[in-house]
Protein backbone atom coordinates (compact mmCIF):
# COMPACT_ATOMS: atom_id res chain seq x y z
CA UNK A 1 0.00 0.00 0.00
CA UNK A 2 1.16 3.49 -0.83
CA UNK A 3 -0.01 6.26 1.47
CA UNK A 4 0.74 9.94 1.18
CA UNK A 5 1.95 12.18 3.92
CA UNK A 6 -0.28 14.19 6.30
CA UNK A 7 -3.15 15.85 4.43
CA UNK A 8 -2.55 14.31 1.02
CA UNK A 9 -5.64 12.11 1.20
CA UNK A 10 -6.33 12.15 -2.59
CA UNK A 11 -2.99 10.48 -3.23
CA UNK A 12 -3.65 7.32 -1.22
CA UNK A 13 -3.29 4.29 -3.44
CA UNK A 14 -3.60 0.55 -2.94
CA UNK A 15 -1.85 -1.86 -5.30
CA UNK A 16 -4.52 -4.56 -5.58
CA UNK A 17 -2.74 -7.18 -7.68
CA UNK A 18 -5.78 -9.39 -8.13
CA UNK A 19 -7.86 -6.52 -9.48
CA UNK A 20 -5.04 -5.37 -11.74
CA UNK A 21 -4.66 -8.86 -13.19
CA UNK A 22 -8.44 -9.15 -13.63
CA UNK A 23 -8.69 -5.87 -15.54
CA UNK A 24 -5.47 -6.21 -17.51
CA UNK A 25 -5.88 -4.74 -20.96
CA UNK A 26 -4.90 -1.91 -23.28
CA UNK A 27 -6.22 1.61 -23.54
CA UNK A 28 -5.49 5.28 -24.20
CA UNK A 29 -3.31 7.41 -21.91
CA UNK A 30 -5.77 10.32 -22.31
CA UNK A 31 -3.31 13.11 -22.85
CA UNK A 32 -6.28 14.28 -24.91
CA UNK A 33 -9.86 13.36 -25.52
CA UNK A 34 -10.69 12.42 -28.17
CA UNK A 35 -7.36 10.64 -28.57
CA UNK A 36 -4.96 11.42 -31.42
CA UNK A 37 -5.91 8.28 -33.37
CA UNK A 38 -9.29 9.98 -33.97
CA UNK A 39 -7.70 12.88 -35.84
CA UNK A 40 -8.49 12.87 -39.57
CA UNK A 41 -7.23 14.41 -42.80
CA UNK A 42 -10.55 16.19 -43.31
CA UNK A 43 -9.25 18.77 -40.85
CA UNK A 44 -6.71 20.89 -42.71
CA UNK A 45 -4.81 24.15 -42.86
CA UNK A 46 -7.87 26.39 -43.24
CA UNK A 47 -9.50 24.79 -40.19
CA UNK A 48 -6.42 25.38 -38.05
CA UNK A 49 -6.05 28.94 -39.31
CA UNK A 50 -9.69 29.56 -38.39
CA UNK A 51 -9.01 28.35 -34.83
CA UNK A 52 -6.01 30.66 -34.54
CA UNK A 53 -8.05 33.57 -35.92
CA UNK A 54 -10.87 32.90 -33.45
CA UNK A 55 -8.39 33.05 -30.59
CA UNK A 56 -7.00 36.30 -31.99
CA UNK A 57 -10.40 38.01 -32.10
CA UNK A 58 -11.77 36.45 -28.93
CA UNK A 59 -11.43 37.53 -25.33
CA UNK A 60 -9.05 34.71 -24.41
CA UNK A 61 -6.28 36.40 -22.45
CA UNK A 62 -5.14 33.24 -20.68
CA UNK A 63 -1.48 32.37 -21.21
CA UNK A 64 -0.63 29.96 -23.97
CA UNK A 65 1.46 26.78 -23.97
CA UNK A 66 4.09 26.02 -26.64
CA UNK A 67 5.58 22.67 -27.63
CA UNK A 68 8.69 22.51 -29.83
CA UNK A 69 9.64 19.16 -31.38
CA UNK A 70 13.32 18.55 -32.14
CA UNK A 71 13.41 15.21 -34.00
CA UNK A 72 17.15 14.50 -34.12
CA UNK A 73 19.04 11.85 -32.14
CA UNK A 74 22.70 10.77 -32.33
CA UNK A 75 21.88 7.12 -31.73
CA UNK A 76 18.79 4.95 -31.72
CA UNK A 77 17.23 3.50 -28.56
CA UNK A 78 15.47 0.30 -29.60
CA UNK A 79 12.45 0.78 -27.30
CA UNK A 80 11.65 4.29 -28.56
CA UNK A 81 8.34 5.07 -30.27
CA UNK A 82 8.94 8.80 -30.78
CA UNK A 83 9.12 10.59 -34.12
CA UNK A 84 12.87 10.91 -34.68
CA UNK A 85 15.71 11.16 -37.18
CA UNK A 86 18.99 9.41 -36.42
CA UNK A 87 21.99 11.47 -37.52
CA UNK A 88 25.25 12.91 -36.25
CA UNK A 89 25.15 15.78 -38.75
CA UNK A 90 24.26 18.93 -36.81
CA UNK A 91 23.95 20.92 -40.04
CA UNK A 92 20.64 19.13 -40.57
CA UNK A 93 19.41 20.93 -37.48
CA UNK A 94 20.35 24.29 -39.04
CA UNK A 95 18.06 23.56 -41.98
CA UNK A 96 15.33 22.37 -39.61
CA UNK A 97 15.52 25.58 -37.58
CA UNK A 98 15.06 27.59 -40.79
CA UNK A 99 11.70 25.91 -41.28
CA UNK A 100 10.82 26.04 -37.60
CA UNK A 101 11.27 29.80 -37.74
CA UNK A 102 8.98 29.99 -40.78
CA UNK A 103 6.29 28.07 -38.93
CA UNK A 104 6.55 30.17 -35.79
CA UNK A 105 6.32 33.37 -37.85
CA UNK A 106 3.24 32.10 -39.72
CA UNK A 107 1.44 31.14 -36.49
CA UNK A 108 2.33 34.45 -34.84
CA UNK A 109 0.94 36.28 -37.87
CA UNK A 110 -2.38 34.41 -37.56
CA UNK A 111 -2.56 35.13 -33.82
CA UNK A 112 -2.04 38.81 -34.52
CA UNK A 113 -0.37 39.68 -31.22
CA UNK A 114 2.61 38.73 -29.06
CA UNK A 115 0.97 36.06 -26.94
CA UNK A 116 2.04 35.45 -23.34
CA UNK A 117 3.53 31.99 -22.76
CA UNK A 118 2.90 30.23 -19.45
CA UNK A 119 4.35 26.86 -20.52
CA UNK A 120 7.08 25.86 -22.96
CA UNK A 121 8.34 22.35 -23.58
CA UNK A 122 11.11 21.11 -25.87
CA UNK A 123 10.70 17.43 -26.73
CA UNK A 124 12.05 14.99 -29.22
CA UNK A 125 13.98 13.20 -30.41
CA UNK A 126 16.72 14.78 -28.36
CA UNK A 127 16.36 18.56 -27.93
CA UNK A 128 19.94 18.81 -26.70
CA UNK A 129 21.09 17.42 -30.04
CA UNK A 130 21.13 21.15 -30.79
CA UNK A 131 24.38 23.00 -30.08
CA UNK A 132 24.40 25.92 -27.65
CA UNK A 133 24.35 28.31 -30.63
CA UNK A 134 21.38 26.50 -32.17
CA UNK A 135 19.54 26.59 -28.85
CA UNK A 136 20.27 30.33 -28.68
CA UNK A 137 18.80 30.71 -32.13
CA UNK A 138 15.52 28.91 -31.54
CA UNK A 139 14.94 30.60 -28.17
CA UNK A 140 15.66 33.93 -29.83
CA UNK A 141 12.93 33.23 -32.39
CA UNK A 142 10.45 32.26 -29.69
CA UNK A 143 11.21 35.39 -27.69
CA UNK A 144 10.80 37.53 -30.81
CA UNK A 145 7.23 36.36 -31.38
CA UNK A 146 6.08 35.45 -27.86
CA UNK A 147 6.44 36.79 -24.32
CA UNK A 148 7.69 34.22 -21.82
CA UNK A 149 6.07 35.00 -18.47
CA UNK A 150 8.33 35.18 -15.39
CA UNK A 151 6.18 32.64 -13.53
CA UNK A 152 6.10 30.24 -16.50
CA UNK A 153 7.17 26.58 -16.64
CA UNK A 154 9.84 26.13 -19.30
CA UNK A 155 11.03 22.54 -19.63
CA UNK A 156 13.34 20.51 -21.81
CA UNK A 157 14.07 16.79 -22.24
CA UNK A 158 17.70 15.83 -21.59
CA UNK A 159 19.83 12.89 -22.72
CA UNK A 160 22.64 12.80 -20.12
CA UNK A 161 24.91 10.94 -22.52
CA UNK A 162 25.23 14.02 -24.72
CA UNK A 163 25.05 16.89 -22.22
CA UNK A 164 27.60 18.30 -19.80
CA UNK A 165 27.47 20.80 -16.96
CA UNK A 166 28.17 23.79 -19.20
CA UNK A 167 25.21 23.05 -21.47
CA UNK A 168 22.87 22.66 -18.48
CA UNK A 169 24.04 26.02 -17.10
CA UNK A 170 23.48 27.51 -20.54
CA UNK A 171 19.93 26.16 -20.60
CA UNK A 172 19.33 27.88 -17.29
CA UNK A 173 20.54 31.18 -18.72
CA UNK A 174 18.17 30.73 -21.68
CA UNK A 175 15.24 30.55 -19.27
CA UNK A 176 14.62 26.84 -18.88
CA UNK A 177 13.64 26.03 -15.29
CA UNK A 178 12.48 22.42 -15.49
CA UNK A 179 14.19 19.35 -16.84
CA UNK A 180 13.18 15.81 -17.76
CA UNK A 181 16.06 13.32 -17.69
CA UNK A 182 15.85 10.02 -19.55
CA UNK A 183 17.28 7.06 -17.61
CA UNK A 184 15.07 4.00 -18.29
CA UNK A 185 17.37 1.53 -16.45
CA UNK A 186 20.92 1.53 -15.05
CA UNK A 187 21.44 -2.22 -15.42
CA UNK A 188 24.27 -2.80 -17.97
CA UNK A 189 22.64 -5.86 -19.54
CA UNK A 190 19.34 -4.05 -20.04
CA UNK A 191 21.12 -1.01 -21.45
CA UNK A 192 22.98 -3.20 -23.92
CA UNK A 193 19.73 -4.91 -24.98
CA UNK A 194 18.05 -1.57 -25.79
CA UNK A 195 21.19 0.17 -27.17
CA UNK A 196 21.28 2.91 -24.53
CA UNK A 197 24.52 2.84 -22.54
CA UNK A 198 24.29 5.48 -19.82
CA UNK A 199 26.27 5.66 -16.60
CA UNK A 200 25.01 6.66 -13.20
CA UNK A 201 27.82 9.25 -12.99
CA UNK A 202 26.88 11.18 -16.14
CA UNK A 203 23.23 11.14 -15.09
CA UNK A 204 24.04 12.52 -11.65
CA UNK A 205 26.21 15.19 -13.29
CA UNK A 206 23.30 16.76 -15.23
CA UNK A 207 20.94 16.57 -12.24
CA UNK A 208 23.51 18.28 -10.02
CA UNK A 209 24.12 20.87 -12.74
CA UNK A 210 20.37 21.57 -12.97
CA UNK A 211 20.28 22.33 -9.26
CA UNK A 212 23.34 24.54 -9.62
CA UNK A 213 21.59 26.39 -12.46
CA UNK A 214 18.50 26.96 -10.31
CA UNK A 215 16.09 24.63 -12.07
CA UNK A 216 12.85 24.43 -10.08
CA UNK A 217 12.14 20.80 -10.88
CA UNK A 218 14.00 17.74 -12.16
CA UNK A 219 12.03 14.75 -13.39
CA UNK A 220 13.45 11.37 -14.39
CA UNK A 221 11.96 8.71 -16.66
CA UNK A 222 12.17 4.98 -15.98
CA UNK A 223 10.68 2.13 -18.02
CA UNK A 224 9.64 -1.29 -16.74
CA UNK A 225 9.11 -4.26 -19.03
CA UNK A 226 12.36 -3.86 -20.98
CA UNK A 227 14.33 -6.95 -22.08
CA UNK A 228 16.32 -8.77 -19.35
CA UNK A 229 14.68 -6.77 -16.55
CA UNK A 230 13.72 -8.46 -13.31
CA UNK A 231 12.22 -7.22 -10.07
CA UNK A 232 15.67 -7.39 -8.50
CA UNK A 233 17.46 -5.54 -11.32
CA UNK A 234 15.04 -2.60 -11.42
CA UNK A 235 15.05 -2.43 -7.63
CA UNK A 236 18.70 -1.47 -7.87
CA UNK A 237 17.97 1.22 -10.47
CA UNK A 238 15.13 2.70 -8.41
CA UNK A 239 17.36 2.86 -5.34
CA UNK A 240 20.01 4.73 -7.34
CA UNK A 241 17.40 7.14 -8.65
CA UNK A 242 15.98 7.76 -5.18
CA UNK A 243 19.52 8.57 -4.01
CA UNK A 244 19.67 11.28 -6.70
CA UNK A 245 16.49 12.76 -5.17
CA UNK A 246 14.68 14.01 -8.29
CA UNK A 247 11.50 15.99 -7.72
CA UNK A 248 9.43 13.75 -9.97
CA UNK A 249 9.71 10.19 -11.22
CA UNK A 250 7.81 8.69 -14.14
CA UNK A 251 7.66 4.88 -14.26
CA UNK A 252 6.39 3.95 -17.71
CA UNK A 253 5.20 0.58 -18.92
CA UNK A 254 7.12 -0.47 -22.03
CA UNK A 255 4.74 -1.06 -24.93
CA UNK A 256 6.28 -3.58 -27.33
CA UNK A 257 4.72 -2.80 -30.70
CA UNK A 258 7.31 -3.82 -33.30
CA UNK A 259 4.79 -3.67 -36.15
CA UNK A 260 4.27 0.03 -35.35
CA UNK A 261 7.77 1.07 -34.23
CA UNK A 262 10.47 -0.48 -36.42
CA UNK A 263 13.40 0.00 -33.98
CA UNK A 264 11.65 -2.37 -31.55
CA UNK A 265 12.22 -5.20 -34.03
CA UNK A 266 15.83 -5.23 -32.82
CA UNK A 267 14.66 -6.32 -29.38
CA UNK A 268 14.71 -10.04 -28.70
CA UNK A 269 11.15 -10.81 -27.64
CA UNK A 270 12.35 -13.87 -25.73
CA UNK A 271 14.20 -11.51 -23.37
CA UNK A 272 11.07 -9.54 -22.44
CA UNK A 273 9.79 -10.16 -18.89
CA UNK A 274 6.51 -12.00 -18.46
CA UNK A 275 3.33 -10.21 -17.40
CA UNK A 276 3.74 -11.62 -13.90
CA UNK A 277 7.34 -10.38 -13.69
CA UNK A 278 6.26 -6.94 -14.92
CA UNK A 279 3.70 -6.77 -12.12
CA UNK A 280 6.39 -7.84 -9.64
CA UNK A 281 8.60 -5.01 -10.90
CA UNK A 282 5.82 -2.45 -10.70
CA UNK A 283 4.61 -3.56 -7.28
CA UNK A 284 8.12 -3.49 -5.82
CA UNK A 285 8.93 -0.14 -7.41
CA UNK A 286 5.75 1.45 -6.08
CA UNK A 287 6.64 0.26 -2.60
CA UNK A 288 10.17 1.63 -2.91
CA UNK A 289 8.92 5.03 -4.01
CA UNK A 290 6.31 5.05 -1.25
CA UNK A 291 8.89 4.20 1.38
CA UNK A 292 11.08 7.02 0.06
CA UNK A 293 8.25 9.51 0.51
CA UNK A 294 7.14 9.97 -3.08
CA UNK A 295 3.45 10.66 -3.68
CA UNK A 296 1.40 8.88 -6.34
CA UNK A 297 0.12 11.56 -8.71
CA UNK A 298 -1.68 9.38 -11.20
CA UNK A 299 -1.08 6.61 -13.72
CA UNK A 300 2.72 6.26 -13.71
CA UNK A 301 3.82 9.52 -12.07
CA UNK A 302 5.22 10.16 -8.61
CA UNK A 303 6.41 13.37 -6.97
CA UNK A 304 7.80 14.63 -3.70
CA UNK A 305 5.21 15.85 -1.17
CA UNK A 306 6.20 19.50 -1.68
CA UNK A 307 6.31 19.37 -5.47
CA UNK A 308 3.98 21.54 -7.53
CA UNK A 309 2.25 18.49 -9.02
CA UNK A 310 1.48 17.12 -5.57
CA UNK A 311 0.12 20.45 -4.38
CA UNK A 312 -1.97 20.78 -7.55
CA UNK A 313 -3.45 17.32 -6.98
CA UNK A 314 -4.29 18.15 -3.37
CA UNK A 315 -5.89 21.46 -4.39
CA UNK A 316 -7.92 19.93 -7.22
CA UNK A 317 -6.23 21.96 -9.97
CA UNK A 318 -4.11 19.29 -11.64
CA UNK A 319 -4.45 19.22 -15.45
CA UNK A 320 -3.44 16.83 -18.21
CA UNK A 321 -2.37 17.69 -21.75
CA UNK A 322 -0.26 16.29 -24.59
CA UNK A 323 2.87 16.60 -22.43
CA UNK A 324 1.32 14.78 -19.47
CA UNK A 325 0.35 16.19 -16.07
CA UNK A 326 0.47 19.96 -15.63
CA UNK A 327 -0.07 22.40 -12.78
CA UNK A 328 -1.65 25.17 -14.83
CA UNK A 329 -5.27 25.67 -15.76
CA UNK A 330 -6.25 24.24 -19.10
CA UNK A 331 -4.89 26.50 -21.82
CA UNK A 332 -4.44 26.49 -25.57
CA UNK A 333 -1.32 24.70 -26.76
CA UNK A 334 0.49 25.32 -30.02
CA UNK A 335 2.82 22.66 -31.37
CA UNK A 336 5.79 23.59 -33.56
CA UNK A 337 7.93 21.22 -35.59
CA UNK A 338 7.46 17.96 -37.43
CA UNK A 339 4.67 15.70 -36.02
CA UNK A 340 3.84 18.09 -33.14
CA UNK A 341 0.29 18.26 -31.79
CA UNK A 342 -1.62 21.30 -30.56
CA UNK A 343 -4.98 22.36 -29.16
CA UNK A 344 -6.55 25.73 -29.91
CA UNK A 345 -10.12 26.37 -28.81
CA UNK A 346 -12.28 23.36 -29.74
CA UNK A 347 -9.72 22.04 -32.24
CA UNK A 348 -6.82 19.61 -32.22
CA UNK A 349 -4.21 19.67 -34.97
CA UNK A 350 -1.11 17.70 -35.87
CA UNK A 351 1.75 18.66 -38.15
CA UNK A 352 3.15 16.51 -40.94
CA UNK A 353 5.02 13.49 -39.56
CA UNK A 354 7.40 13.23 -42.51
CA UNK A 355 10.08 15.92 -42.49
CA UNK A 356 10.06 16.38 -46.28
CA UNK A 357 6.30 16.92 -46.24
CA UNK A 358 6.76 19.35 -43.33
CA UNK A 359 9.37 21.30 -45.33
CA UNK A 360 7.25 21.26 -48.51
CA UNK A 361 4.24 22.77 -46.76
CA UNK A 362 6.30 25.64 -45.38
CA UNK A 363 8.02 26.15 -48.75
CA UNK A 364 4.51 26.57 -50.18
CA UNK A 365 3.86 29.27 -47.59
CA UNK A 366 1.28 27.52 -45.46
CA UNK A 367 1.16 25.80 -42.09
CA UNK A 368 2.21 22.11 -42.16
CA UNK A 369 -1.06 20.65 -40.86
CA UNK A 370 -1.49 16.96 -41.63
CA UNK A 371 -4.67 16.16 -39.71
CA UNK A 372 -6.79 17.15 -36.74
CA UNK A 373 -10.39 17.49 -35.62
CA UNK A 374 -12.96 19.95 -34.35
CA UNK A 375 -14.57 18.72 -31.15
CA UNK A 376 -18.32 18.31 -30.83
CA UNK A 377 -20.17 19.37 -27.69
CA UNK A 378 -20.28 15.70 -26.70
CA UNK A 379 -16.49 15.49 -27.08
CA UNK A 380 -16.02 18.55 -24.87
CA UNK A 381 -18.36 17.17 -22.22
CA UNK A 382 -16.65 13.78 -22.13
CA UNK A 383 -13.23 15.45 -22.13
CA UNK A 384 -14.26 17.32 -18.99
CA UNK A 385 -15.40 14.07 -17.32
CA UNK A 386 -12.23 12.18 -18.26
CA UNK A 387 -10.00 15.09 -17.20
CA UNK A 388 -11.66 15.14 -13.76
CA UNK A 389 -11.14 11.41 -13.30
CA UNK A 390 -7.55 11.37 -14.54
CA UNK A 391 -6.47 14.46 -12.58
CA UNK A 392 -8.63 14.49 -9.43
CA UNK A 393 -9.80 10.88 -9.02
CA UNK A 394 -13.29 12.30 -8.55
CA UNK A 395 -16.27 13.70 -10.43
CA UNK A 396 -19.02 16.05 -9.31
CA UNK A 397 -22.28 15.24 -11.08
CA UNK A 398 -23.72 18.64 -10.12
CA UNK A 399 -20.76 20.49 -11.65
CA UNK A 400 -21.10 18.58 -14.92
CA UNK A 401 -24.88 19.09 -15.04
CA UNK A 402 -24.60 22.82 -14.42
CA UNK A 403 -21.76 23.37 -16.87
CA UNK A 404 -23.27 21.39 -19.74
CA UNK A 405 -27.02 21.68 -18.98
CA UNK A 406 -27.62 17.94 -18.96
CA UNK A 407 -29.15 15.32 -16.70
CA UNK A 408 -26.13 13.14 -15.89
CA UNK A 409 -28.05 9.90 -15.33
CA UNK A 410 -29.93 10.26 -18.62
CA UNK A 411 -26.96 11.38 -20.68
CA UNK A 412 -24.68 8.63 -19.42
CA UNK A 413 -27.29 5.89 -19.20
CA UNK A 414 -25.14 3.60 -21.36
CA UNK A 415 -22.07 4.19 -19.19
CA UNK A 416 -23.59 3.80 -15.73
CA UNK A 417 -23.84 -0.01 -15.75
CA UNK A 418 -20.04 -0.16 -16.20
CA UNK A 419 -19.59 2.38 -13.41
CA UNK A 420 -21.81 0.28 -11.13
CA UNK A 421 -19.76 -2.78 -12.04
CA UNK A 422 -16.56 -0.96 -11.10
CA UNK A 423 -18.23 0.04 -7.83
CA UNK A 424 -19.02 -3.58 -7.02
CA UNK A 425 -15.36 -4.42 -7.67
CA UNK A 426 -14.29 -1.76 -5.18
CA UNK A 427 -12.63 0.56 -7.72
CA UNK A 428 -14.87 3.53 -6.97
CA UNK A 429 -17.81 4.85 -4.98
CA UNK A 430 -20.72 6.46 -6.78
CA UNK A 431 -23.90 7.64 -5.04
CA UNK A 432 -25.46 9.40 -8.02
CA UNK A 433 -24.17 12.80 -6.97
CA UNK A 434 -20.44 12.26 -6.64
CA UNK A 435 -17.97 9.72 -8.00
CA UNK A 436 -14.83 9.06 -5.94
CA UNK A 437 -12.16 6.67 -7.14
CA UNK A 438 -11.15 4.41 -4.27
CA UNK A 439 -7.46 3.85 -3.40
CA UNK A 440 -7.48 0.43 -5.11
CA UNK A 441 -8.94 1.97 -8.27
CA UNK A 442 -6.33 4.67 -8.75
CA UNK A 443 -3.81 2.49 -10.53
CA UNK A 444 -6.67 1.51 -12.83
CA UNK A 445 -7.83 5.04 -13.58
CA UNK A 446 -7.44 4.53 -17.32
CA UNK A 447 -9.92 1.65 -17.17
CA UNK A 448 -12.43 3.87 -15.40
CA UNK A 449 -11.92 6.76 -17.83
CA UNK A 450 -12.42 4.38 -20.77
CA UNK A 451 -15.99 3.79 -19.64
CA UNK A 452 -16.80 7.36 -20.74
CA UNK A 453 -14.92 7.15 -24.07
CA UNK A 454 -17.67 7.13 -26.67
CA UNK A 455 -15.22 6.92 -29.57
CA UNK A 456 -13.63 3.82 -28.08
CA UNK A 457 -17.00 2.16 -27.66
CA UNK A 458 -18.62 3.11 -30.96
CA UNK A 459 -15.88 3.72 -33.51
CA UNK A 460 -13.19 1.39 -34.77
CA UNK A 461 -9.56 2.48 -34.70
CA UNK A 462 -6.35 1.06 -36.10
CA UNK A 463 -4.43 2.38 -33.09
CA UNK A 464 -2.49 0.00 -30.87
CA UNK A 465 -2.81 1.18 -27.26
CA UNK A 466 -0.39 0.47 -24.44
CA UNK A 467 -1.29 -1.73 -21.46
CA UNK A 468 -3.25 0.13 -18.80
CA UNK A 469 -0.86 -1.33 -16.20
Automatic annotation (TrEMBL):
It catalyses: coproporphyrinogen III + 2 S-adenosyl-L-methionine = protoporphyrinogen IX + 2 5'-deoxyadenosine + 2 L-methionine + 2 CO2. This is Coproporphyrinogen-III oxidase. It comes from Vogesella indigofera. Its EC number is 1.3.98.3. GO terms for molecular function: coproporphyrinogen dehydrogenase activity. Belongs to the anaerobic coproporphyrinogen-III oxidase family. InterPro entries: Coprogen_oxidase_HemN, Coproporphyrinogen-III_oxidase, Elp3/MiaA/NifB-like_rSAM, HemN_C, rSAM, rSAM_sf. Pathway: Porphyrin-containing compound metabolism; protoporphyrin-IX biosynthesis; protoporphyrinogen-IX from coproporphyrinogen-III (AdoMet route): step 1/1.
